Amino acid sequence: MYINQHNFDWAVTERELVIFVPNYRRKLLFDHTIKEMYTEVPTKDWIIIIGNDGVHEDHSDLEEFNVKYFTLERPDTSERNGNKIRNFCIKRCKSKWLFQRDPEILYRHDYIATVLKHSKPKQMLRCGDVMQLTKRATEHSLARKIDRLFEGTCRTVNPKDHTFMHYGCCLSTELLQSIHGYDECFTTWGYEDTDLFHRLQHTNCESFCLTDLQAIHMWHPPTSDGHILREREVLYKKLDPKKIIRNGEDWGNG
Hints:
This protein is an alpha/beta fold. It has 8 helices and 9 strands.
């Protein structure tokens, strides 16, 4: 059955932890970032939800890895609508904790157990070290089973650097819902995570580093020219991060 935002069963998110992955044409990466992950945490406590952002991809081959998916159908023609599809999940999610990650992120060790072990209210859980792969390194890795990548040099993410949210961040679902998620003024991509990070700081939400959580960011094709990012930066600088609650009551409708 074709699953979209209208017939997806959100009851499956009644868990301790939901890992939400917004996806735009990156199915190839899931063979490594999901099929090669492992955890000792019982599946009744967690689930991965993939949200196809406007472009349908079939992920039924991932169901054995405790994955459910849906396609957010939308009338606009933008290549990505990342903040809105995240909000669509945030508003409807029934889990206690929500871990957000991108399709191109690979984690070392049992990141699900690590997150659940340390999750506390009013904390942003973040990865400790990250490695950015080049195009060549990523293509080489995809051509074989990823095994020794984490023996390379990672960089430690500065706690004041908002980019850790891009590599993976876990928060209370209730907290995200209370501030109406991401600011939906940020269409396509760019600076939405920066803005959310600074808004969360004004909720007295502290950043906590998970030193056991190392991430690899795999290269993927650029999606837009730099002018979009510059436009989002201008938008970000015009907004007041102290205004914690954004969007209206109709937020999170995609």
